[in-house]
Amino acid sequence: MSESPPPSSGSARPTGVPQGAGGAPERVLLVLACLFALLRFWRLGEWSLWIDEAYTFADWKFSLDGGQIWNPLGYVAIGQTVAFLGGHADEFSLRLLPAIVGCSCIPLTWWAFRDTLGGRRAALVALVLAVSSWHIFWSQSARFYTMAMALSLLGSGIALRGLWRGKLVRSSIGLAVAAAAAAFHPTAALVAAGLCFAPLLVRLRSPELQQKAGRAASAIGLFALLAALIASPWFISALRQHQENKPTSALLSGPLHLGLTVGYFYTPLLSVLALVGALWAWWRRDIVGLFATAVVLVALGGALVLSLAMQMTAQYTFSLLPWVIFVAVVPYGRERGWAGSPLASFGWPALLVLPALAGTALYFSSRGGERSRWREAYEWVDDEREPGDLILGHAAPIGEFYLGDADRDPRRPRALSPLGFWFGEGARRWNRKDRRVWVVIRPQWLPQLSDRDRASLTTWLAEDCRLMRRFPVLMDGRDLELLVYLRDEDR
Questions:
Q1: How far is it, in rounded angstroms, from Cα 89 to Cα 454?
Q2: Single pTM value for the model
């Protein structure tokens, strides 16, 4: 069954834009989506912090008052949540607000796209997002990506409703709200840029948008230009800081890294289905599919350009995930051709939902939240060590969070010695004293050392230390295992 197009009289929308409720299928899909959204609270405090979460705690606790943070809203919000829960910062209290906002992204997705896609297909987008393990990961992380996505979805929903009705003010307000998501993370502005430039790209294939929404589309383009000029100093400062912290090693290494991580985290299947949806929209001149595809292309294109000068990874395109699912869902439920066949009516949602649901089941079981087991490793060492033992480790801010005192600052570890991306004469220095040295490493990070330092470290571990324990994670495509070594006094 297909959702009926709007009547031609009295409607300002292009004829390709669905209208009205999706009936019982919409309600069933939406209820399922909201139920799966609650998974964001399951085992919320069980997984170890990872490095960026430790930095969230450090920056909220020690850097906010110094004006060193250029996107303070997320830090303040997480800090207020911790204070509301009693002031004790642990995995649960640090992650609760991102989980709540991540849960809200599911009904927000349905609302944002319902007026454009129609109720049933918008509910399917929400369901696919609800069972996405990648979305669950960020909902269970003490970071600000779900906050950026939620505000981006709110603005997108307002902008789309204004655009299809040719409403200048509503379109501009929606674009402003979507752009404001950059206050939580500047990369959320990529979606706002997509909303600005998508009408221009759609006109190349379908003149209908110009006929029905041309005034509003032109206005949001002008608004975007003015907003970009006003916000440019802030964006340039944020980008310069990111480039200093994460430069690319070669011209094409950045785009290659971005492409590989996007393919991995969006999943190859969703990427292929989105490509099919984009081609279907081009072939059928489907204005809805063309618009969503244009948003995705502009946002990914912007990330690709930035990756030439700085390291960009899939997480910086996280706010785009609902739009990618949108494109993949576009052919679903159409009356004519293969997309409207009974097989497609059931098979298309199954292809989108069931593999994602399987990935989520693995996320909560064998993959252990898709995090290295830092807490277990450092706490095991803490139980086994003797007075005077040195602890040396990768991700020292995490070790400081778990082993430090009440005034711990993860960016200035005292409970252990950091093993950074260098080694130098470390082995000779650590061997000077007759004391035991515990070493916690993540082997996947060893290639980031220089050839000389990597050879020095691995030789020292092989000749002067012994492997005490492994902390594996059964994660396909990523090596999250941690190793714990011990250098005895008599070595």
A1: 35
A2: 0.90
